[in-house]
Amino acid sequence: MASNLKPAFGYTIVYVKDVAKSVDFYAKAFGYNVRRLDESHRWGELESGHTTIAFTPQHQHETDDLTGVVQVPKSDRQRPPMELCLVYSDVDAAFKRAVENGAVPVSQPEHRQDWGQKVGYVRDIDGMTVRMGSYVHPPKQD
Questions:
Q1: Over the stretch 50-78, which tens digit does the pLDDT of each residue have?
Q2: Are 83 and 128 in contact (CB under 8 A)?
Q3: Domain ranges of the chain
Q4: Residue 28 φ then ψ, to 5°
Q5: Could you tell me the sign of the dihedral formed by the alpha carbons of 79, 10, 132, 103, in that order?
Q6: Pairwise pLDDT comparison (12 vs 66), residue with the higher score
Q7: What is the pLDDT, as a whole number, of residue 5?
Q8: Which pTM value belongs to this model?
Q9: Assigned superfamily of 1-70
Q10: How far apart are CA 23 and CA 42, in angstroms?
Q11: Which residue of 56, 91, 93, 98 shows the fewest CB atoms closer than 10 Å?
């Protein structure tokens, strides 16, 4: 019976300064299709496979009442307490596209032998770290 309690992962919600701008940025920089942007611009969603990447304002009233003010880094030197990892078959092309569409490059894509993935990092228009990685391939055994 415990298997009935296993949840499906539904959303990653990103708190942003401007929902419409972030939805547009993610669509152009990372290649997503917009699923929804409500008329009030207080909620936006991107099609991302089995789950959804959603955006809502940093100072959304309903959330503030429940959990307090959303904490944001106080400077560009502070890293947000999460990162979004997007997986691509061609990380170099995806990284180039993101930077050409306004993402700030943090580190160029490189192969990480320790976990069998090629990864590069950018920051989005709100300063959130986005890891752009290839599918993970386990190291070859001798």
A1: 888 888 887 765 555 566 666 666 766 66
A2: yes
A3: 1-70, 73-142
A4: -80, -45
A5: negative
A6: 12
A7: 78
A8: 0.79
A9: 2,3-Dihydroxybiphenyl 1,2-Dioxygenase, domain 1 (3.10.180.10)
A10: 11
A11: 93
Torsion angle, alpha carbons of 62, 72, 85, 130, to 10: 130
Q: Put the strands of the sheet holding 83-87 in their side by side order.
A: 83-87, 129-133, 117-123, 104-112
Burial of 7-28, coded b for 16+ CB within 10 Å and e otherwise, reads eeeeeeebbbebbebbbbbbbe
CA dist., res. 104 & res. 124, Å (int): 7
Query: What residues pair up with 51 in beta bridges, in sequence order?
Result: 48
Decide the pairing of beta strands 129-133 and 83-87. Answer: parallel
Q: Dump pLDDT digits (tens) for 106-125.
A: 999 999 877 788 999 999 99
CATH code that applies to domain 73-142: 3.30.720.110
